[in-house]
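Input record (one chain):
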Amino acid sequence: MKTLYLECHMGAAGDMLMAALYELLEDKEGFLRTMNGLGLPGVRLEVERGASGGIAGTHMKVTVHGREELEHDHEHPHGHEHSHDHEHTHEHEHTHDHEHTHDHEHSHEHHHHHATPGHIAGIIDSLALPEEVKANARAVYDAIAQAEARAHGCPVGEVHYHEVGALDAVADVTGVCYALHLLKPDRLVVSPIHVGCGTVRCAHGVMPVPAPATANLLTGVPVYGGEVMGELCTPTGAALLTHFAQSFGPMPPMAAAGVGCGVGTKVFAGRANCLRAFLGEDAGGANGTICELVCNIDDMTPEALAFAARRLLELGALDVYTIPGTMKKGRPGHLLTVLCEAEKEGELARAVLAQTTTNGLRVRRCAKYFLTPGSGRVDTPWGPAAVKTAEGFGIRHVTAEYESAAELARANGLPIQTVLAEISRRL
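The corresponding structure, as predicted from the sequence alone:
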């Protein structure tokens, strides 16, 4: 299985993550041409070779009208009720990849316009990128906006981004999403994330590390601090990692075919300021886990059992099915099986007890092999049709999306078999 492992021993930020993934791409020049041809006003990506702590890598320099923005100028949006007077005397100890030698205590020549989450979504929608890439980028920004709104106690619609910094961050987010689209890993695993410690000074004043929005984004994720003073994981880095990661933990057994290294510009004594990405094939074992809840039922009507199955699906079960069988004392009955994610085990176990007549059930945690789902479209004589994809372990399945095929059949007065056959012919 094609596995991507991200080592975040010095946290994560958008440009460092993009630089590490860039090093793994086969067509690096094609990636840069695409990113620099998106039409983001004044935005340009430049690749710089660098090193940190004796480790060579790449710094992805993202400039807006020729200037590289500091990370905290755009990665900490704010609620509308807060002051719009950006304090450019931010202390520099908390960013490690956007901090440069220029003094940022000056006033910007440009005006401080602001962009809402809706404005950012509009920018992303206008980009000449695959729909999957844009959908992922929008989801990452949605997560950031929700985390910021929660941190500042304001509605999501009142979160605002500094316009120039926002363009820089859009390039970071879309660049990472596009690089992952090109790499197509079957599984993405992330190490526990080093967030740093201490405090950070930003437009709202002095805040603890991790910043409140970052802490919200990393809820449920293994993180740790340490003696490194400053902010190592930014909101953009946190949002990207939590959106794409399928699991967090140590590096799985894998044969790495390539290693990418994204380096920051800030120097930490005795520490390499970098994020590394390992791409290769793992041992071929299961790529997930699943819970199986099972019970025997011999005293429910078919209608009541069907209702219970529907309710369990509505409550988050991945699948619910029954198998007829003979229960104790020779009575006919059913074996009810509910499949769910591990974190839903307790909730759905209680739901089985509430929705059925059983007084107990068995729980098994099973290893799970699965193909990563996706979607696409094919052209037919009657218009485009949606298809479902599933990939992994060197296997690819493509099937017609039934509702899309049915819509074409109804609109054109055709048997659905005709439409399905045409879609299959074009796969």
